[in-house]
Write a structure and sequence with these properties.
The chain has about 270 residues and is of the alpha+beta class. The chain has two domains: about 1-120, DNA Polymerase III, subunit A, domain 2 (DNA Polymerase III, Chain A, domain 2), CATH 3.10.150; about 135-255, Box (Proliferating Cell Nuclear Antigen). The protein is built from five helices and 20 strands. The protein has helices spanning about 10-20, 70-80, 130, 145-155, 205-210, and strands spanning about 1-5, 25-30, 35-40, 45-55, 60, 65-70, 85-95, 100-105, 110-115, 140, 160-165, 170-175, 180-185, 195, 200-205, 220-225, 230-240, 245-250, 250-255, 260-265. It has a nine-stranded antiparallel β-sheet. The protein has a five-stranded antiparallel β-sheet with strand order 5-1-7-8-9, covered by helices on one side. A hairpin with a 3-residue loop joins strand 2 and strand 3 (about 35-40). The longest helix has 12 residues, at about 10-20. The protein is elongated and about 55 Å long. The two termini are about 35 Å apart.
């Protein structure tokens, strides 16, 4: 069994909302030290890992490792019922095979209780360790709002965002479509930190970038790593603790300018 509690339900609500827009179901691994989620979307275009240490929870009680299968869409619906001043508590008893979720309003006796039937999931082995060990020529830390703006601009023209990092020029986000094109430029001085060597450039799906950036409001720090023909690496440091590592495979265009496109899988 385990019991986890966060006084600020907004944090876990934002994380689950982003996950639910990418994957349908996954496994939560709760150990005496942390909550761990690894997941890959069905099309094998993106994968992520969430780590939340026990010290980042307001209450954390887990004596041994527990793995539970969760339907993220259903969990997202429940957590969206939480208010701005609600705490959230998760309880699991093996004999019931249900996750119990308690939402309680701060300063009030109002409490709402939900339960969620667990799933029997066979998880595919995810090569996260290999990806975490990749070296990148370009890495920078930025306000996630800049990337959100670039995505909204790019959506006018296409479903692909081109990201270019240049040691001399800084960052350029661009998109090209039949009606025209756009460029969003950021000099290195606009970045919080940067370590860009030479020039790196790759194309990525706007759909999957939009999904993970739903957590921009609960992100304390965003670090991005870029390399030609490699997955985009994004590391989100979450408010009040926790880290999401997110990898997005590049889009690979056919030789024709507006021909069919394939997505490089992991």
């Amino acid at each position: 069994m385990f019991k986890l509690k966060l006084d600020n339900a907004k944090i876990i609500r934002g994380v689950v909302e982003a996950l639910a827009s990418i994957i349908d179901e996954t496994e939560f691994v709760i150990t005496p030290k942390q909550l761990l989620i690894k997941a890959m979307d069905p099309s094998r275009i993106c994968l992520l890992q969430l780590n939340m240490s026990n010290e980042h929870f307001d209450e954390y009680d887990c004596k041994k490792e527990v793995r539970i299968g969760i339907n993220l869409e259903d969990l997202d619906k429940i957590l969206k019922r939480s208010g701005a001043n609600d705490s959230v508590e998760f309880n699991f008893e093996p004999k019931t095979q249900k996750l119990k979720i308690k939402l309680k309003q701060s300063g009030s006796s109002k409490t709402r209780n939900f339960s969620l039937t667990l799933l029997d999931i066979e998880m595919e082995e995810i090569p996260m360790e290999n990806l975490l060990g990749l070296g990148y020529e370009a890495e920078w830390s930025m306000d996630p709002g800049f990337l959100v703006e670039a995505i909204k601009d790019a959506e006018i023209y296409a479903e692909i965002l081109t990201i270019e990092a240049d040691e001399e020029k800084g960052l350029t986000f661009s998109s090209v479509g039949q009606i025209g094109e756009m460029e969003y430029e950021l000099e290195a001085s606009e970045l919080n930190e940067s370590n860009i060597k030479g020039r790196s450039k790759a194309d990525y799906s706007l759909q999957f970038l939009k999904s993970i950036l739903k957590i921009d409001s609960i992100t304390e720090k965003l670090t991005v790593s870029l390399k030609d023909a490699h997955p985009l690496k994004m590391v989100f440091q979450i408010l009040e603790g926790g880290t999401i590592h997110y990898f997005l495979a590049p889009r690979v265009e056919e030789e024709e300018e507006f021909g069919d496109e394939d997505i490089e899988e992991f």
